[in-house]
Write a structure and sequence with these properties.
Layout lengths: L1 H26 L9 H18 L2 H4 L5 H21 L11 H38 L4 H20 L9 H16 L1
Length: 185
């Protein structure tokens, strides 16, 4: 059973993370021509495109990518429903509180999963960014990662000075993300 839950977690992590990354890239007005853009588009077009067609035009043209965010929420809810189905919750919630508890726990599991996905996804982006800055600083994806992480790193860089020419802001961001992951359990 734990192997099946691991596979479910992994599959939905990639789907939800891709939808959230697509929303973040579109909100930052980044072009989707270089990685991770094409990968994110390929992974999420099947759910985002129908949502874009069904949303009011005002939402489609908004500065924030509403369709990709709604896709992430729907995928997180699907994860929570599958998680409950695999754990045999049926009509009873995990603590046996009946149908009302079940309806509450599915959104709660979905919200927890979305928060974990955001934090873990940001950690992956930060780790790739820092490793590439050491190994291959001129890689094309380095600029993209810098654009994605800039809103998170800028406030840290204002407070934390460079030490011997080394920017420790990414390290502090990773530590803060890890603390947040521990806090949400």
């Amino acid at each position: 059973m734990s192997a099946l839950l691991f596979l479910l977690d992994t599959l939905f992590f990639f789907l939800v993370a891709a939808a959230l990354l697509r929303a973040w890239m579109n909100t930052r007005r980044m072009r989707m021509v270089q990685q991770p853009g094409p990968f994110v588009m390929a992974l999420t077009n099947w759910i985002v495109q129908p949502l874009r067609k069904s949303l009011p035009q005002v939402w489609v043209q908004a500065r924030f990518d509403v369709a990709s965010f709604i896709a992430a929420v729907l995928l997180a809810l699907a994860y929570a429903a599958a998680w409950h189905a695999l754990l045999g919750a049926g009509l009873l919630g995990p603590q046996g509180v009946g149908q009302a508890g079940q309806l509450f726990s599915i959104p709660w599991v979905a919200l927890n999963f979305m928060l974990r996905t955001v934090l873990q996804g940001l950690m992956v982006l930060a780790l790739v960014y820092v490793v590439l800055s050491w190994v291959q600083p001129q890689a094309p994806i380095q600029y993209t990662l810098g654009q994605l992480l800039q809103p998170l790193l800028a406030p840290i860089r204002r407070v934390l000075p460079t030490v011997g020419g080394v920017d420790l802001s990414v390290l502090l961001l990773i530590v803060l993300l890890q603390v947040a992951l521990i806090l949400i359990g």
